């Protein structure tokens, strides 16, 4: 904002129109950095004209094939960041996103371009389509993107692998057909599992990819079972990963604990209940949410001994604490856990015989 108030936007608008790469490219990168997750700045950019021309129109013209790939990429990143900032001037349905930015980024993922360009384009495309299912569908059918990302995933450079995994995670977030196309790519699941053996951000990207794929009932019953995906995920948890990695791993385990997942029994036998109960004690709200969510899934239509183990490991005091959590989502998942624990007459009688007063007190607290 200080740069905006100092006249930075008109200065950058002039700079990005200079046809000298050494000036134009830094100007575009600076503009992108200013707009990243910053709606006030993005709105100012959208409302600014220079020499009678809106900046958005200038950026859109720069994604044209007639410009150097580095300029196309930098301009696309500007448009991506403006859109993702929440600016009302550039929605996901805008032609500048649908017909210019997204196709440009998909095109730049092609092996025709340098690996660095492809990697950055894939990461930008992942961010562009991350939360919009229509953009995900459009990207998946653009310019042989899935096969080009698979090619990028097989590169030796770790940043290239990470970018490809991030893009796969975005594409597979909501659509079953896209997940099927991704998983059918030769050697893909092996590359994803290899990423889990790496360090840092590559590992996180690999788990994010698995998380998106784990939303498929068919894949849970086939690919995930054939490769025993639950094992490396549990190994990651035992290694005490960073909060970011733990959040993504536990989110994936939530899906592996759904009633139609064959991995549910294996996770139960591997001591998942104790691990999930520990997550509910975390100061991180995302981890508390995932812990209560996973326990809720585990308790659904479970045998009585499993429910008893959950109650004994979690404790009624912890349930009471979760039902008074500051995060409403944690409260809802904990109520879902109680509902699943008390799902049949026999189980209700057994559990309430020991814990009736504590459970009723907790529920009444929520109602009040």
Q: What does it look like?
A:
This protein is 72% helix and 1% strand. The protein contains 25 helices and 2 strands. It has helices spanning 2-5, 8-15, 21-35, 39-47, 55-62, 69-84, 95-108, 115-129, 133-140, 145-153, 158-171, 176-183, 188-195, 201-213, 217-221, 223-226, 230-238, 243-256, 263-269, 272-279, 285-299, 304-314, 316-322, 328-341, 345-367, and strands spanning 49-50, 53-54. It has a two-stranded antiparallel ribbon. A hairpin with a 2-residue loop joins β1 and β2. The chain is elongated, with a radius of gyration of 24 Å.
Give me a quick take on this structure.
The chain is mostly helical.
Key attributes of the depicted protein:
single chain; 368 residues; mainly alpha; two-stranded antiparallel ribbon
Beta-strand content: under 5%
Q: What is Rg?
A: 24 Å
> Biggest sheet: strands side by side, in what order?
1-2
Specify the helix fraction band: over 70%
Low-confidence stretches: none
Largest sheet: 2 strands, antiparallel
State the helix count: 25
Averaged pLDDT:
92
Shape: elongated
Q: Helix and strand string, N-terminal first? A: HHHHEEHHHHHHHHHHHHHHHHHHHHH
């Amino acid at each position: 904002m200080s740069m905006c108030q100092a006249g930075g936007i008109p200065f950058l608008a002039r700079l990005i129109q200079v046809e000298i790469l050494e000036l134009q490219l830094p100007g575009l990168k600076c503009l992108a950095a200013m707009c990243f997750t910053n709606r006030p700045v993005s709105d100012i950019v959208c409302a600014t004209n220079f020499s009678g021309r809106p900046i958005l129109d200038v950026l859109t013209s720069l994604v044209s094939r007639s410009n150097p790939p580095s300029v196309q990429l930098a301009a696309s990143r500007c448009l991506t960041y403006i859109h993702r900032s929440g600016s009302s001037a550039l929605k996901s349905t805008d032609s500048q996103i649908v017909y210019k930015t997204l196709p440009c980024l998909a095109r730049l993922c092609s092996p025709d371009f340098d690996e660095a360009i492809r990697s950055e384009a894939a990461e930008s495309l992942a961010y562009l389509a991350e939360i919009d299912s229509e953009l995900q569908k459009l990207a998946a059918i653009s310019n042989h993107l899935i096969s080009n990302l698979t090619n990028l995933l097989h590169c030796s450079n770790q940043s290239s692998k990470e970018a490809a995994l991030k893009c796969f995670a975005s594409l597979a977030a909501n659509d079953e057909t896209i997940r099927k196309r991704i998983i059918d790519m030769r050697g893909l699941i092996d590359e994803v599992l290899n990423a889990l053996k790496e360090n840092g951000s590559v590992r996180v990207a690999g788990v994010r990819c698995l998380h998106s794929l784990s939303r498929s009932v068919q894949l849970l019953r086939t690919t995930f079972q054939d490769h025993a995906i639950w094992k490396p995920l549990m190994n990651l948890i035992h290694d005490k990963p960073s909060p970011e990695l733990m959040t993504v791993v536990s989110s994936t385990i939530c899906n592996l604990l759904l009633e139609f997942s064959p991995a549910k029994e294996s996770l139960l036998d591997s001591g998942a209940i104790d691990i999930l109960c520990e997550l509910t004690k975390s100061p991180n709200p995302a981890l508390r949410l995932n812990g209560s969510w996973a326990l809720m899934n585990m308790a659904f239509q479970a045998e009585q001994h499993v429910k008893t183990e959950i109650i004994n490991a979690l404790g009624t005091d912890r349930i009471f604490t979760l039902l008074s959590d500051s995060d409403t989502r944690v409260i809802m998942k904990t109520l879902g856990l109680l509902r699943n624990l008390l799902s049949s007459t026999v189980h209700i009688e057994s559990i309430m015989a020991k814990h009736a007063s504590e459970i009723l007190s907790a529920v009444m607290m929520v109602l009040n």
